[in-house]
Specification:
By secondary structure, the chain is of the alpha+beta class. It has 6 helices and 8 strands. The strands form 2 sheets. Strands 1-7-8-4-3-5 form a 6-stranded antiparallel sheet.
Length: 151
Amino acid sequence: MGSMFQGETAITIDDKGRLAIPTAFREQVASVCGNRLVITYDAFESTGLYIYPYPAWEPVRDRVNALSKTKRAHRVLQLKLVGAAEIVELDGNGRISIPASHRKVAGIDRRAVLVGMGDKFQLMSEADHMALAQQALGDEDLGDELEGFNP
């Protein structure tokens, strides 16, 4: 499927817990997954959500489900990613409903930021997004894979 979603958009969650997918992405979302998305918890942060197009979600789900259940980290991943996964569809106005439990765990209230991460979106509260975006990475954080990387 390749990389497709990029950029960050400040969005408002309405009183019913809905967010409008930015118009720039709607055509892609319609063509890639027939407007079916999967919402689940961010695997690596304590707050925030992942939003996958359904076809991109399936291999992730299968891979996570295949992990050994004896390791605690695997069980946590299975709980956060697969156990919490909710399939949603865009309505006629390009909105999706974010379940209340997901909003609560993710710390998302009214103001949020939707970030295109290639094959999926990341959704986080405005405050969490700011904290993450302001983190400075030191040499020790980058590891060998990014040796000499100078974006």
